Every structure is written in C-alpha cells, then in structure tokens.
Amino acid sequence: MDNVLEIEGLFKSYDGKKYALKDCTFSLKKGEICSVVGESGSGKTTLLRLIAGLERPTNGCIKLNDKLVSSDSHITPPQKRQIGMVFQDYALFPHMTVEENIGFGLKNSNNEKISDLLNLIKMNSFGKAYPSELSGGQEQRVALARTLALNPNLLLLDEPFSNLDIGLKSELRLEIKRIVKELKTSLIFITHDLYDALEIADKLIFLKEGIVFQSGTVNEFMTAENSEIKKMISNLKKDAKHLLNK
Ligand code: ADP
Ligand code: MG
C-alpha cells in the first residue's frame, strides 16, 4: 500500500456529549498534499492533534504506513510517529541562530544537512542570523526547515500563514508545495481559507461542525454540485479560476 495515512470512522468528543469530530474517513498517499478547510470550530485542529497522537480518539482508528497508531484503546506517542508539525505560533528559539534552530532536533550536529535545508528554504546567507533579525515569512521557513530536519513521513501544518500578509502567504504556500514535492513527503495543510486550500492541495477535505461535508480533488471542488460549495467557489476572487484543471 502506498498510503502514508489511513483514517477510519474517527470520532472525538472532549466532554462525552458534543463531538468535535464525527465519523471522519480519508487516506493520504505518499507525496500527496491534502488541505483541511473549514470555519473556526469545525474540528480542523482536533483532526490534526489526533493524527499527531496528541489526542486519543473516542472511536475509530488511524494508521500510519499500515501500522495502527491510534484507536480508543491504543495510542502510539507523538515522538514515535515520524510526523512533523508546524503550528500557528511557530516559536523559534530566540537565543539560537537560524542554523542552531534548524539543527536543534538532530542527534549529531550535521552541517551538511543544515546547509541542504538552508538551501531548500533559500536562506543560505541567513545561517548565522538570529530570529529577531528575520521577517515573519523567513521565521516560518526556518520553522519548516527545523521540522524537515527530522525526515518526517508526514508534515502537519496548522494555519501556518495566519500572521502573514497576503503576498507573502501566496509565495510561501507555493514554496512549501515545491519543497514537499521535492522531498516526496506528504502534507496535511489546515486553513480556514478556501483559496489557500485550493492553491496548495492535490485534494481537500471540507469540515463543517465536525463532519466531512465534502472531500475530493481540487477539480472536484471547483466543479462541485453542492450549492454551499458552489457559492463559496463563486465567491472566490476571479483569479481562482486558474485553479481549474491545474
Ligand atoms: P478548528 O481548529 O476548526 O477551529 P477545533 O478542533 O479547535 O476547531 O475545535 C472543534 C471543537 O472542539 C470546538 O467546539 C472546540 O471548542 C472544541 N475543542 C477543541 N479543543 C478542545 C479541548 N481541548 N477541550 C474541549 N473542547 C475542545
Ligand atoms: Mg484550529
């Protein structure tokens, strides 16, 4: 099987009454980018935390590379999942240089690897800089490189651009897409912005009140029959049309 991730009938309730996530099923292939999109409170972060092993499902299961990692009775700890996470508040260590930040999780200091990663994020000349000397977009790239240093099978990004302005957002999104494709890793990208989601993804999951309301490829979304999705697509700026048949 070339599925990196398989999720089956996943439910999560924090209080035993209300469900933050209901009967979620999907899979992700190696090299694939999946966007999870939905309004605030729709269960996006819950889904990510379940995949990362930071939460235990109330029901259902998660497999990584064909291995069961989460069920209501079993949980493989996050550090044993080979998953890389970058959250909204991508805190870099302020007293460490860019190089030191990227190498932080490596057992042996590996200068070649750090230099490759600096190259990958196009920040070769910033190795000795401190986080305070970087722009928001550069900090975000370093946070990504620090995560990639650990060779994750699957990358999880939770609203990584919410602090950036629009021009930077788009540039960084395409940059991340290039990096993920180049490294042949897989990515789940969470956002509340449908345009962001469509631009980066191979496929999408649209969550509404904890339920997978619609899922499919970018093309399937752009041409969806569902009236709510249709309306959202038509509300996107005209320049979203280039995403058709991308
Ligand atoms: P999103 O990331 O889409 O904004 P979340 O997954 O954070 O959504 O939240 C989904 C629902 O679960 C919300 O109703 C939220 O209040 C609830 N929730 C999230 N985390 C917790 C928690 N740790 N304890 C209790 N309820 C939570
Ligand atoms: Mg969230």
Brief summary:
By secondary structure, this protein is of the alpha/beta class. It folds into 2 domains: 3-82 and 154-170 and 182-244, Rossmann fold, CATH 3.40.50.300; 91-151.
Structure description:
The chain folds into 2 domains: 3-82 and 154-170 and 182-244, 3-Layer(aba) Sandwich (Rossmann fold), CATH 3.40.50; 91-151. It has helices spanning 44-52, 98-103, 111-120, 136-148, 166-183, 194-200, 218-222, 227-235, and strands at 3-12, 21-29, 33-37, 59-64, 67-70, 83-86, 154-158, 186-191, 203-208, 211-217. It contains 8 helices and 10 strands. It has a 6-stranded mixed sheet, with helices on both faces. Strands 2-1-4-5 form a 4-stranded antiparallel sheet, with helices on one face. 31% of the residues lie in helices and 25% in strands. It starts with a strand and ends in an 11-residue tail after the last helix. With 246 residues, it is an alpha/beta fold. The chain is globular and about 50 Å long. It binds adenosine-5'-diphosphate and magnesium ion. Adenosine-5'-diphosphate is lined by residues 14, 20, 38, 40-46. Magnesium ion (MG) is lined by residues 44-45.
